[in-house]
Amino acid sequence: MKRQDNGTPRYGFTTWQQTCLITSTLIGVGVLTLPRTSSSRLLEAGWMAPLVGSLGAYISIWMIAKLSRRFPGMTFVEYSPLVWASKESPKLGKLLSIPWIFVYLSFIYVATGMVSRIFGEVVVTSVLLNTPLEVIMITMFLLAFFLSLHDVDVVARVNEILFPLIIFPVLFIAIASFQKADWSYLFPLIRVSGKSIFEGAYEAVYSFSGFEIMLIFYAFTQHNSGKEKAGFVGILMTMVVYTLIVVAGITVFGYEELQRLTWPTLELVKTTQVPGLILERLESAFLAVWVAAVFTTVANAYYAVIYGLRQCFNKGMVFQRIASAFLFIPLFFIALIPQNIVEIFQISSYIGIGNLVLNLGVPTIYWIVLFLRGKAGIPKERKADG
Amino acid sequence: MDKRWSYLCLLLLCLSFLAGCWDRRELEERASVLAIAIDAGGEDEERYRVTVQIPIPIKIAGSSGQGGGGNSNAVKVMSVTGRTITDATNNLQLRLNQRLFLGHTRVVAISEEIAREGIEDILDGFRREALIRRLLWPIIVKGKASSLLEIKPQLAQIPVVFIMDLVENGRKMGTIPDKTLGDYLNETSNKSMQPFLNYVEATKREVKWIGTAIFHDHKMVGSLTPIQTWSLMQLRNQKRGGDVIMPLAGQEDAYVTLRPRFVDTNLTIQPNKFKGGGLEAVFSCEVQGDIMEYVPGNIRFASPEKFIEAMQKELKQEMEKRARQMIQKLQKHNSDVLKLGLHLRSYHFHDYWVHHDWNKAFKDFPIRVEYTIKLRRLGMEMEQ
Fold first, then answer.
1. How many helices (H) and strands (E) does chain B have?
2. pLDDT at B70 over 60
3. What is the C-alpha to C-alpha distance for residues B232 and B195, in angstroms, rounded to an integer?
């Protein structure tokens, strides 16, 4: 396989940048609906959903990180052919790896469309009541497009700088709303069966999708950086934030009322009074900051898709720029497919489950294949056991 | 060449600072509704009569030179009927030159008549409307709800502001419960408790807080007097409630006044000792307070210690009596606003909640109240 002509040497993401990348990608539109979805089955014990729902993500990110250790400096697109066939038959490798790459990229692509749609729905229903949904979505696409014009290192730096802007408002809302909390709402601790804890956790899984972009971005990490550590810490931070938000939602509203709220976290912001009353209407400020959270989700995923495509076709920066401009058109129409809010939530729930299957399934298959072909050894490191 | 391009970019960048909102609306260009009052319509199909209060910005003192003057002219009160609340607001829009804006609504007054029929239908629209704040105050009005918007309080330019201050101040002093729309919605959704709302009465000039209205399944079923509401607040929210003015036993025109400072309530569920079997709820409420007034005319105690001891005993009995009356009323109306059901569901789920239908069980659930009065000070006076 011909090495593509990058021109510049590959940039090395630090561990912290990887962590930021993962956390800010994970925290997106899911946080607005999470208290409702996670308490729909689990009732008072809804806060367990992010804890249980993240289990799959930990395992998956660990496998993805190990894959990247096995093929250092390579993206998923680059190492797939090496997994499926030996170096001597690149054609076969490419042929065999295309379905996987295609499934992954198109999945991330569609998921990105749904994220931007949900973002548009929130903005249209709560703050900009007269603005067409399409305009909001296109603005978000333009932002993502702008990021796609740049190199990978820009993505890392943007995520690093937006990270506090994403995590602190959500933490602040969760903690500030505890002053209205009634802790009795959290009890009885366990009333549902163990089986439905896992069923209920399904609902939270959607909020943990998005870290699969690391299939691409791990390639740009510094060699001695802790990829696994970054993955774990990134998901752990997300999990903590999510759990806090769900606890806040349940203790303020009670699980019955949560089921009736379309955007529980937004309502949480609305009912939270900040001491001092600097801002009486916090939700506009919160949504303004939350745009950053959605932006990192949409733009990172979109960038990963574009970069994957670029590598598929062995093209350079120009291709990336042109492709990112044109790929928004189908994305726009994909995002407009769901006809109403109920359909949106249904689809995003399916995406969540599909994502879990994909993220757990594909790395597992890859490791099994590597193992069977006797190539599972990680260069100058301990043996991986898949 | 490069320089020219960068100048152009800079120019374009400057343009972005000059841009405004393309669909902006000035403050004067919208009719901000401060309060909504909902009455029964009367006419055949038109179920509701909706009255709104809209401030007139130019007449509010301070906003322009003319200010002051007859203060109640600073608002316009309009009334309209409709089949639903949204229908009525749409009908109202037909009579207005500016767009109605509900984002600033702070008070929703609902007449007792409507409340007794049930307010679920009314609140559905409020639930869906994104502009409505969950922090606004629904208030039940004795008589016509629109009378609340027509008062002329004189102490505030806008009547609604007067009502808001009244509630807000009471909330700060711990005498009026802070019941927002959000609280109401949470409590009606919750299957283990019932909501209550503030209950007021309006005369031509004034408005008066007369306790709380208690609900069962969205329907108002009864009301608590202010004294009963204070007992409720002490047991439910650990709020201090108002002063306790107790007539002294065996004397005429003799009263003692307790001002509660701190209230600490513990709810324990324990096996019923008296009636055998089952559980009983015991509210142990500790009130710390001061004596603010003591007008017995002639009787003086031998020593301050004796006085405090005797007062604590009498006040305890009085407070327990009040709480008992309040609980009897709640049980009569089958409205668990005490959050007792929530406590049972949370901490006695497997041994009680799953076997009982709280809707029926609350009526006969044994509840005891035990007050502990701790008199801390006697005011500025040392002699009893």
1. 11, 14
2. no
3. 12
Distance from CA of A151 to the nearest CA of B (A): 21
Q: What is the CATH number of the domain that holds A154?
A: 1.20.1740.10
Q: Given this model, what pLDDT does residue A158 score?
A: 92
- ipTM at complex level: 0.85
- Looking at the domain assignment, is residue A36 inside a domain? yes
Check A188 against B191: CB less than 8 A apart: no
Q: Which residue in A126, A131, A184 is closest to B130 by CB distance?
A: A126
**A126 contacts in chain B (CB < 8 Å):** 130
User: How far apart, in whole angstroms, are the C-alpha atoms of residue B242 and residue B239?
Assistant: 9
SS3 content of chain B, % helix, strand, coil (to 5): 35, 30, 35
**CB-CB under 8 Å, B134 with A267:** yes
Q: A185 and B346 in contact by Cβ < 8 A?
A: yes
Cβ under 8 Å to A: B residues 92-131: 127, 130-131
Beta bridge partners of B212: B198, B224
Question: Among A346, A360, A333, A328, which Cα is nearest to A146's?
Answer: A328
Q: What is the predicted pLDDT for the residue at B68?
A: 46
The enclosing H or E element of B244 equals strand B244-247
Domain of residue A70 covers: 15-371
Q: Which of B23, B185, B342 sits opposite A130 (nearest CB)?
A: B23
> Of A182, A240, A181, which Cα lies nearest the Cα of B192?
A182
Distance from the A366 Cα atom to the nearest Cα atom in chain B, whole angstroms: 47
The model carries a pTM of: 0.88
* CB-CB under 8 Å, A256 with B190: yes
Question: What local confidence, expressed as pLDDT, does residue A279 receive?
Answer: 63
Q: What is the Cα gyration radius of chain B?
A: 27
Q: How many domains does chain A have?
A: 1
Residue-wise pLDDT for B214-233, tens only, equals 999 889 999 999 999 999 99
Computed on alpha carbons and rounded to an integer, the radius of gyration of chain A in Å comes to 21
Instruction: Tell me which of A121, A257, A277, A283 to substitute to probe the interface with B (most B C-beta atoms closer than 10 Å).
Output: A257
The C-alpha angle B111, B117, B119, rounded to 5 degrees, equals 70
Does the beta-carbon distance from A129 to B23 stay under 8 Å?
no
Of B36, B35, B40, B33, the residue nearest B143 (C-alpha): B40
Which tokens belong to A6? Answer: 């990058």
In a domain, A88, yes or no: yes
Instruction: Give the per-residue pLDDT at B21.
Output: 67
Q: What is the pLDDT of residue B275?
A: 65
Rounded CA gap, A191 and B92, in Å?
A: 49
- Residue B370 is inside which H or E element, if any? strand B367-377
Shortest Cα–Cα distance, A256 to chain B (Å): 6
| pLDDT band, residue B20 (cuts 50/70/90) | low
Q: Is the dihedral of CA B137, B138, B139, B141 positive or negative?
A: positive
Q: Is A384 inside a domain boundary?
A: no
Q: Which two tokens stand for residue B25?
A: 């609306």
> Domain residue spans in chain B?
28-224, 237-377
Question: Is residue A129 less than 8 Å (CB to CB) from chain B?
Answer: yes
Mean pLDDT of chain B: 85
State the fold for domain B237-377. Answer: GMP Synthetase; Chain A, domain 3 (3.30.300)
pLDDT tens figures, B330-369: 999 999 998 899 999 988 888 888 888 888 888 888 899 9
Q: Is A188 on the interface with B (CB under 8 A)?
A: yes
Higher pLDDT, B25 or A315: A315
A256 and B189 within 8 Å at the Cβ level: the answer is yes
Whether B276 and B266 have beta carbons less than 8 Å apart is answered as no
DSSP string, B257-283: EEEEEEEEEEEEEEE-SSSSSSEEEEE
Give a yes or no: residue A133 inside a domain.
Answer: yes
Tell me, what DSSP letter sits at residue A378? Answer: P
